[in-house]
Amino acid sequence: MVAGPLPAPSGPGKDRLRLWIRLLRASRTIEAELRERLKKDFNTTLPRFDVMAALYRVPEGMLMSDLSRFLLVSNGNVTGIVDRLVSEGLVARARRNGDRRTSMVRLTEEGTQAFATIAAAHEGWIGELLGKVSEDDARRLTGMLTSFRSNWEGRE
Amino acid sequence: MVAGPLPAPSGPGKDRLRLWIRLLRASRTIEAELRERLKKDFNTTLPRFDVMAALYRVPEGMLMSDLSRFLLVSNGNVTGIVDRLVSEGLVARARRNGDRRTSMVRLTEEGTQAFATIAAAHEGWIGELLGKVSEDDARRLTGMLTSFRSNWEGRE
DNA sequence: GTGAATTATTTCAAGCTTAAAGTTTCATAT
DNA sequence: ATATGAAACTTTAAGCTTGAAATAATTCAC
């Protein structure tokens, strides 16, 4: 990934390779910037933000496995992040009556308020970082990426 | 990041937020797939591939700091990855006469051959994974992402 | 020339990440 | 009822990642 600008690749299929490289560099650049700001302004991390963002949409909570599927990361990964969020009082696990294997994970009151604040800043940052992309281009790009993704949805 | 499809965000500036979410999901999906294939088919990792790809472009080698700048990752990170590649015989460090702080890092003969093989497979995978994106759309998307990036090039 | 900043790199601690193996609980077929 | 298997989750080991501190070498101001 992140291959080179020097001997600009050419030939059949190179357009897609170049697209992938640009896509990756763009998302890494933005991610790095967001990570830095989350740390500096809110003393938190991108993975914690991701988990909280997922939970924020669903007040009643999510199962660990749903969370992991939604975030595209492994089960064990989510366990660790949620552990830390719980120890910080931002998230709570609730055992369920029906199935004792599972637990509903949800934002606490404190977590909900904390996330709302961070999310507002986050949206502003995105607006700033993607400021040079016109609203029109943004919609067009989003459309292309969506159709790409539908190609992969529910593959394995 | 990777926020939700459920309460579809709307309002001013939401188009850019949505774009970012799609961008991130697309790149994470592709990255996950590549990581899995690199592991299965070549018993290597994405970070190792990235470093080798960077070095492949420049037979004479790169400084650690150039490598870290190019790959958008921290110095200490590169140290660890290069250490492992060196211990596998794929990469070599060469102390320089001029400046004894620095060392030129380059692919070994073995590393060069290994990378050529992996890179060929990699390009095929990208062609497959992005197959639904037309060459035309690929070029257009690349253009948009490039102009976005120029906004950020050499910021801090 | 000496000392102070600067630069290149490594080391370190904490946290993120995965794949694989392990635990507990549930479902279902006899 | 009870085995068998599947499902939900956690644990573990190895590796990736960052930011900050530490080392070492160079450059620059005087």
UniProtKB/TrEMBL annotation, chains A, B:
<dbReference type="InterPro" id="IPR000835">
    <property type="entry name" value="HTH_MarR-typ"/>
</dbReference>
<dbReference type="Pfam" id="PF12802">
    <property type="entry name" value="MarR_2"/>
</dbReference>
<keyword id="KW-0238">DNA-binding</keyword>
<feature type="domain" description="HTH marR-type">
    <location>
        <begin position="16"/>
        <end position="150"/>
    </location>
</feature>
<keyword id="KW-0805">Transcription regulation</keyword>
<dbReference type="InterPro" id="IPR036388">
    <property type="entry name" value="WH-like_DNA-bd_sf"/>
</dbReference>
<dbReference type="GO" id="GO:0006950">
    <property type="term" value="P:response to stress"/>
</dbReference>
<dbReference type="GO" id="GO:0003677">
    <property type="term" value="F:DNA binding"/>
</dbReference>
<dbReference type="InterPro" id="IPR039422">
    <property type="entry name" value="MarR/SlyA-like"/>
</dbReference>
<dbReference type="GO" id="GO:0003700">
    <property type="term" value="F:DNA-binding transcription factor activity"/>
</dbReference>
<protein>
    <submittedName>
        <fullName>Transcriptional regulator</fullName>
    </submittedName>
</protein>
<keyword id="KW-0804">Transcription</keyword>
<dbReference type="InterPro" id="IPR023187">
    <property type="entry name" value="Tscrpt_reg_MarR-type_CS"/>
</dbReference>
<dbReference type="InterPro" id="IPR036390">
    <property type="entry name" value="WH_DNA-bd_sf"/>
</dbReference>
